[in-house]
Amino acid sequence: MSEQNREPGRTYDQATYAVSDDENEPLLTEKRSDTVEPGDALPDDLTRDELTLPNPEEPELARHYTRLSQMNWSIESGPYPLGSCTMKYNPPVTEDVAADPNAAVHPDRSADSIQGTVGLLAGLQDYLGRIGGMDAVTLQPPAGAAGEFTGIAVARAYHRANGEDRSEVLIPSSAHGTNFATAALAGYDVVELPSGEDGRVDMEALEAAVSEDTAALMLTNPNTVGLFERDIEAIADVVHDAGGLLYYDGANLNALLGRARPGDMGFDIMHYNVHKTFATPHGGGGPGAGPVGVTEELEPYLPNPRVAETGSGYELVESEDAIERVHGFQGNWLVLVKAYAYIARLGDSGLADASAKSVLNANYLAGQVDLAVPYGPFHHEFAATAGDAAAADVAKRMLDFGVHPPTTNWPEMVPEAMLTEPTEIESKQSLDDLAAAFDAALGSTAEERHDAPSRTTARRIDQTNAARDPRLSWQALDGE
Amino acid sequence: MSGSPYAPHTDAETAAMLDAVGAADEAELFDIPDPVAFDGEFGIESRSEQALRRELSGLLAENDDLTEFLGRGHYEHYVPSVVDSLSKRSEFLTSYTQYQPEITQGFLQALFEYQSMLVELTGLEIANCSMYDAATALGEAALLADRVRSADGEVVLVPETLREGKRSVLANYVDGAALRVEEYPTEEGTADIDALDDAVGEETVFVYAETPTVRGCIEPNLAGIGEIADAAGALFCLGSDPVALSILEEPASVGADVVVGEAGVLGLPASYGMGLGLFACKEEFLRQVPGRLVGASEDTEGTRAYTLTLQTREQHIRKQRATSNICTNQAWVALRAAMHAAYLGADGLVDLAEDCVTLAQDLAQDIDDIVGLRAPVDDRHQFREFVVGTDQPAQAVADDLEAEGFAVHVIGQHRLQVCVTDANAHAADDLVAAFEEVAA
């Protein structure tokens, strides 16, 4: 359908206020700093000698950060189709709800005195349980990787309670890096499973790898190239027959909302990425939240405390079999409020529409782009290959055409991969623009791609030198 | 049946797109075997914006309106409006991790500035972009010790007064590395140096101390703790926060190898324990640091530019050999903390920190003047908070205070803890009056 070298719908023009050729916006410390000595509240032997920090006046502060914001891409700037990241529009109403003054409470308040807070948490536990088909949920994990750690620690506790010392966690080679790191953090050896030719779990490889040492299999479904693991029931049987547990990585849950539930597929443990599926803002890298759902059998191992409904309200309850905690308090409360608000705004029909439109958008976009997609049928995301072009360079060239590029060079099973997840929020027009940007970048010469980007705040950044000569603070820039 | 309010497709567009992909309807695009397909309902009703706001403001209004004098690891300082308005600019709030640095220079520079402020406050050369909270930062610090110490020790030493949430998270993090958490005694709310010296042995890889401690006490002998740790070849990790560090001894000057703590004391209002994990360390541990680091570099035109760097430490490159499994962190909270610190400047931070000392001192004095109460219980300089001894059962006193509209901690049969900052100081006299009512 698409034409070669179609001109993109619009080009990129990121606001800059360069004050010199050397930098786009001076560091705070290059503007105004003060050095102050502590006063006499404490004796000298308990205090530092002096403190030097930037000291902008409020209008200067406002301009500094406004300028910085103008040098930053966001979901409200335009398409942000990073595969596996689920960059959705973040409804401002959820911000307003979280800004409620009554939400600003201390974690040591008695549950009796904050029935609103614990009631909301109980409601979210309930919603997540229904959406994932899980019997019990903890909201404590403050991010997806923290959810993984919680889930694998639950598996560890379960096996220990059964008197078993299992040492291995099985993970497909195409899985998110956090899965491997989480298993290692929990003290497990990682057994990597090769993908089958069709891009899914290779049943023979799984059967060969599973043993009495298997603590768990960590799986994403749809997987990281967007394919549904059709053999999921058989996979669950193989793992369960060996006494292992099945763990669901919730990064791709957006594709399944209202269509399938991990609990119904045989998963024992799952985490939800509320900053993906439930549209809480990514905030430039966090905060997120990674609630964990489990089957009834594993509920006693969830970290303390959890919220439970009583006859007259809500209370915090503890289990003596619980794993140790994963957060000093109750996790990222303000994020959880926003997740609740998003789920309540959408309801059943909105959630089902989100998965429908996310899958429709991915399929439509893939059809508009002049790239091969080796694996299918995919759902909410597709892993195209840039072929002879370097995916990273294509991505840099896309920056010049007014869009954020997809995730590149991952997963490794697709050469020069461009893992693309437009989510449900892009319109047909927006997807057409995105496709035009893909094609324009592919239609550029290799030299143009190598020199890209040229219309952005910063041109191509020297990554090698950044790592070879680390300058990680303005103190390290002294003399430059 | 209505769809998602955030999916912009008209019916005609949906039809055109389905036509383009050759599907009769959206359901046809799903490759889900029947036995695991879900055809039920969640039973979650879709609300309008107005109904949603009414419902949730009504629900949250069920929280009792108490004036909180609570701390013990979660603190509130007044966050200026400009921090809210700037940080909520959607270019910051709705952006992702800076995997394309050429179009995310703004956030990268803000994080670079955040790292730099922590370098100034700690005196250590390296600070990362954030951990989740103080407890997880402590867990990561202990694992750093396990990686960088060549000794085969397996003991992580923490004060016996450590908050339970932190001890528990630490125990969880070190379980997989086969380390174990042991406690050393304290006196007057700070480390018992002689007992600590006895507790440290060749099996010790990590010694943790806090200033201020969970009881609000300023540790008077940090250098002594550092020397004990150093003599044993253990890593010395200091827990603190950026407000306290504005006036307290610089961690580098007392021998700290790593500083962790709660940086959310800046930029975050009371938020039910949500935090911002501070993590800073000596340069020699650079390649073993967990989490993200922003570095300065140049673009092809020679202009200074910022980028995530040393990513070969991280999970998305190094997988099971990564220094941590952390990916999503607390970047936006770090942005807010940096804004708040810049708003205050060095003089504002020092003033705020001095207030944390004098407000606590004055309130403790006023409470001490009441018959049946003693404060502070610990013979130490206090920061923000202090322990109160009660003749009456502490729980009864706290319950009576709650009835008067105040929340304080109960930490023992006859022990309360009270925290005062610029956020609640306006109500300190009322708290004293309430204490007079209920404590006698």
UniProtKB/TrEMBL annotation, chain A:
* InterPro entries xref list: Aminotrans_V_dom (IPR000192), GDC-P_C (IPR049316), GDC_P (IPR020581), PyrdxlP-dep_Trfase (IPR015424), PyrdxlP-dep_Trfase_major (IPR015421), PyrdxlP-dep_Trfase_small (IPR015422)
Annotated region (Disordered) at 1-54, 444-480
An annotated GO cellular component: glycine cleavage complex
Q: Which residues form the Glycine dehydrogenase C-terminal domain?
A: 380-438
Which Pfam families does UniProt cross-reference here?
A: Aminotran_5 (PF00266), GcvP2_C (PF21478)
Q: What does the UniProt keyword field contain?
A: Oxidoreductase, Pyridoxal phosphate
* Protein name, per record: glycine dehydrogenase (aminomethyl-transferring)
Question: What's a single GO BP term from this record?
Answer: glycine decarboxylation via glycine cleavage system
UniProt GO molecular function: glycine binding; glycine dehydrogenase (decarboxylating) activity; pyridoxal phosphate binding
Residue spans with biased composition (Basic and acidic residues)? 1-10
Catalyzed reactions per annotation: N(6)-[(R)-lipoyl]-L-lysyl-[glycine-cleavage complex H protein] + glycine + H(+) = N(6)-[(R)-S(8)-aminomethyldihydrolipoyl]-L-lysyl-[glycine-cleavage complex H protein] + CO2
What are the EC numbers? 1.4.4.2
For the keyword Transport, the answer is: no
Domain Aminotransferase class V: from-to ranges: 153-283
From TrEMBL, chain B:
EC main class here is oxidoreductase
Name the keywords, alphabetized. Oxidoreductase
What InterPro entries would the database entry show?
A: GcvPA, GDC-P_N, PyrdxlP-dep_Trfase, PyrdxlP-dep_Trfase_major, PyrdxlP-dep_Trfase_small
Keyword Oxidoreductase set for record: yes
EC numbers on record: 1.4.4.2
All copies of domain Glycine cleavage system P-protein N-terminal, residue ranges: 6-423
Q: Which GO terms describe its molecular function?
A: glycine dehydrogenase (decarboxylating) activity
Q: Which Pfam families match?
A: GDC-P
Q: Source organism's superkingdom?
A: Archaea
- SUPFAM superfamilies named among the record's database cross-references: PLP-dependent transferases
Q: Name one GO biological process term.
A: nucleoside metabolic process
Enumerate the Gene3D superfamilies for this protein. Answer: Aspartate Aminotransferase, domain 1, Type I PLP-dependent aspartate aminotransferase-like (Major domain)
The protein's matches in NCBIfam families, at most eight in alphabetical order, are given as: PRK00451.1
Please state what the protein is called.
Glycine dehydrogenase subunit 1
Q: Which organism is it from?
A: Halolamina salifodinae
